[in-house]
Amino acid sequence: MPTARFAPSPTGPLHLGHAHAAIFAAHAAEPGGRFLVRIEDIDGARCRPEFATAILDDLAWLGLDWERPERVQSEHMAEYRAALARLDAMGLLYPCFCTRADIAREIGRSGAAPHGTDGPIYPGICRALPEAEARRRMDSGEGFALRLRADAATARSGPLAWRDEEAGEVTVDAAAFGDVVLARKDTPASYHLCVALDDALQGVELVTRGRDLFTATSVHRLLQALLALPVPRWHHHDLLTDAKGKRLAKRDRAATLAALRAAGKSPAAVRALAGFPD
User: Fold this and answer.
1) Where are the beta strands (DSSP E) in 40-144?
2) pLDDT in tens, 11-27
3) DSSP H or E stretch at residue 6
4) Could you tell me which of 38, 104, 121 has the C-alpha nearest to residue 75?
5) Half-sphere exposure of residue 85: CA atoms within 13 angstroms, side-chain side
6) For 111-190, where are the alpha helices, taking DSSP H only?
7) Long-range pairs for 133-140 at CB < 8 Å and ≥24 separation?
């Protein structure tokens, strides 16, 4: 059986949707496979050590067992910087100084706002910025992001596809995600870069996660090709929803596992609520 992983961000306590994802991943590794837990804490402004501790406590309470030690992203920034340097040496990155307001205005002027993995697709305002001007603005301390030149990246990689356990083969289309952000001035790597590199370094063979990340997988497949990383399989599962059909989310204060525990729910009862009755 394959190596699978659950990779939460410690920006708050786990809720039933997280429990579903964690148990799904653990089952994907059974019997005889490896189940890993990764703490994705690159967002220093929102992540908290106490949430990471609570996450591991909740997972153990649910009855899950995983390989120790857990990989903690904030401890591996040098690896992400090295991967960025490789992409930069290929001429595939450029600095972007646009704010969300700048992007919204440009999209408004163009009258079109196609959506990609991270919201509206970036309209390329800074793509042709002269190198000297870009360097001057970076050296002055202006905030910036490093974006991937999607057209150049796909030209370098050639045609790509990836396989989902339910959807089958999916063709990578750079137009569906555009020039995604791979790093920011204050954060040396984005989710996209970290997850592609982490899965490779940890030997993850089957990536299980929610359907909301289905489109993002094409970004990760492209990065795998550019960085010569191994290619896993994917299984994008359904998301748990509330009574109105809206997916459970931290920002909507979905019922947490801690609250369910405090209310007297047993691990078996919570597993059943998460879609995995014993």
Assistant:
1) 71-72, 93-96, 115-116, 119-120
2) 999 999 999 999 999 99
3) strand 3-6
4) 38
5) 6
6) 131-139, 150-157
7) 134/94, 134/95, 134/97, 137/95, 137/97, 138/95
